[in-house]
Amino acid sequence: MDFPQKIVDRVVARQGALHPYRHLDPATTAFVVIDLQNYFTQPDFKSACAAARPTFGAVNKLAKALRQAGGHVVWIQTCSDDADKFWSNYHDHMWTPERSQRRLRELSATHHGFELDAGLDVDAKDLRLTKRVYSAMLPGSSKLHETLQARGVTNVLIGGTTTNVCCESTARDAMMMNYNTVMVDDALSAVTPEEHINALHGWMLYFGDVLSADDVIQRLGK
Q1: Cβ atoms < 10 Å from Cβ of 174
Q2: How far apart are CA 10 and CA 23, in angstroms?
Q3: Strand 209-211's sheet: what is its strand order?
Q4: Predicted confidence band at 46 (pLDDT cuts at 50, 70, 90)?
């Protein structure tokens, strides 16, 4: 991804280089893929992101490369069971009643919408975790942090959908919990190109790195 020169200048002035992570040790690296579930990828669902499925090539390529190098692949799925209770402000005020009920139903653990999209290459050895709110790193949302810590992970790669919501929320928390965190731009998607680009610009300025799947794979082999 090409950044405006004004962003490049600010990042380089702050940290001395545009991309701080020259090598990513596969053994301590996890590719965390957020919410590539039917509810967010298939057009018959109201929350579908049309740009999500075109990222599957990059997602699958990076997952395979990291897996083969000895790294960790983690698939995160949002589950709405009881969300009207533990996240009542969200369901009461940020959704219409009809959309709230549809979200509760179509993201429940027993619904087809909860399932990962069939276009993803998910290996039996990959990790699969459920989250309850936007950030998978937030305490009480999922067991992501504990799972990564148990495996000695220090580098977190973020893919999935949407860039500026669940992916960025998880990435920001990961960075502030002391993980070296990279947003993988071609493995991410948002509802509009502007939302995707703006999120990555803000991320690059203050939080971590942005690399393509191929850029990450090169760093795994060094």
Answers
A1: 28
A2: 23
A3: 127-131, 72-78, 29-34, 155-161, 180-189, 209-211
A4: confident
Mapped onto helix, strand or coil, the DSSP state of residue 79 is coil
Q: How many domains is the chain partitioned into structurally?
A: 1
Return the amino acid letter for 165.
V
Helix 193-206 vs helix 168-176: crossing angle, to nearest 10: 10
What's this model's pTM, rounded to 2 decimal places? 0.96
Which residue range(s) make up the domain with 157?
Answer: 5-220
Q: What is the CATH number of the domain that holds 180?
A: 3.40.50.850
Helix (H) / strand (E) containing 30: strand 29-34
Number of other CB atoms surrounding residue 97 within 10 Å: 9
If we measure between CA atoms, which residue out of 168, 164, 214, 169 comes closest to residue 191?
164
pLDDT tens per residue, range 114-126: 999 999 999 999 9
Residues paired with residue 77 on neighbouring β-strands, in sequence order: 130
> What is the largest distance, in Å, between two alpha-carbon atoms of the chain?
52
Whether 115 contacts 130, CB under 8 Å: no
In this structure, the dihedral spanned by the alpha carbons of residues 138, 103, 162 and 67, taken in order and rounded to 10 degrees, is 70
Please list, in sequence order, all residues whose beta carbon lies within 8 angstroms of the beta carbon of residue 122, skipping any fewer than 6 positions away: 75, 116, 128
